Amino acid sequence: MTLTTTARPATDLGFLLHKHPQRAQAFEVSAGTAHVFYPRADEQECTVALLLEVDPIALGERVSDRPYAASSLLAVALGSVFRTAMNGRCEQRPELAETAIPLRVHIPAVGGAQLVHRLFEPLGWQVAATPLPLDTEFEQWGDSPYVDLCLTGELRVADALSHLYVLLPVLDGSKHYWVDHTEVDKLLRAGAGWLAAHPERELISRRYLAHQSGFVRTALARLAESDEVAAQEWDTPEEDPAKPVPLARSRRQAALEVLRGTGAKRVVDLGCGSGALLRDLVRDKQFTELLGVDVSVRALQLARERLPEQVELRQSALTYRDSSLTGYDAAVLMEVIEHVDEERLPALERSVFGSARPATVVVTTPNQEYNARYETLVTGRFRHADHRFEWTRAQFAHWADSVAAQYGYAVSYLPVGEPDPVLGPPTQLAVFTRQEGR
User: Fold this and answer.
1) 168 lies in a domain?
2) Cα(81)–Cα(75) distance, rounded to whole angstroms?
3) Mean pLDDT, to the nearest integer, of 89-118?
4) Structural domains counted in the chain
5) Ranges for the Hen1 N-terminal domain (predicted)?
6) Mean pLDDT for the chain overall
7) pTM value surpassing 0.70
8) Runs of H (alpha helix) within 194-333
């Protein structure tokens, strides 16, 4: 597999992948040896190659395509060799890891020819899949089940790697190792930010989890808890009084009521995702200027498709100060902070409360205590694979009180969702109000 960029300077790809362009490296993996090298590395274009040298005898498969075609073996090697890059971390150039750049992926032989367009195009890739003949000397035999695959697009490198890590086994259709409950976590962690919104998420989950129905149900149930994908985010059917109000809707309604009460007119949704809250806000004439900010290009593409043109959308990382965010009456961080590594929260605090300084900040986050009510969650696991933490009510109050004291805000708390008498509400909400003269 090769990954190419023409972003200037193109050699920045080495920073993102944590692999020096001037070195050829080899890594032992379960299927053999993974080699990483750069066929080209200059200012104009940089290409990294991942070559998996499979030992077919060690695999114990006398007749197999695995030494010759991309499969779950390549995905495992990719996840092992480029793990840090796939997690979106780049200590030397953190802003680079958050930037979408032009990318081209080439895989000379991959199966699942009938699926490649369905899987990659919804993620923003342009797909060129050239069928490979069964035998070049006998054209009458027709095409094989394999294609020469080329993907082009403008994405974060971390997103591109996570797409390949998940979808190569899906195209393969036959994982080479035993699937257990930990595979559900791997799928949701690697698919965070895009799998939940994918139109083929059920097919992806089913094939990635080797058609193990129990694991597939668990994965889909946890994906449904992701606010950006549940149908109720965008559908507006007749309310059924016999059914509980979905938590995602309760969160948006709670935020909307707080914003109405403040009299805010100019509102920025920080971490807006696919824009569900913005859609509610745009319907209310009180709000005259709306801005949605998110680090995910794919989420912003979905939001753009669903929102009117007067709603401005912008890609930005919330851990960096952005002077264009100053002057807004209110900012919302709805189910956002738990997606940020705790050690990076001070950077987010400085950006939002220290630099942007809106008059009102609304923050929601899961109540970790309430997780005991979710049957699909194993004890100790989070509601979403991309969550870095989930706080108890006391932990959230400690954080919010500290932020308010440091940056000159008063803070109050509201429950969201039907509360448990012992465990509290499923979602906790804090309203920060800037103090005069601070």
Assistant:
1) yes
2) 10
3) 89
4) 2
5) 1-224
6) 88
7) no
8) 201-208, 213-224, 247-262, 276-282, 297-306
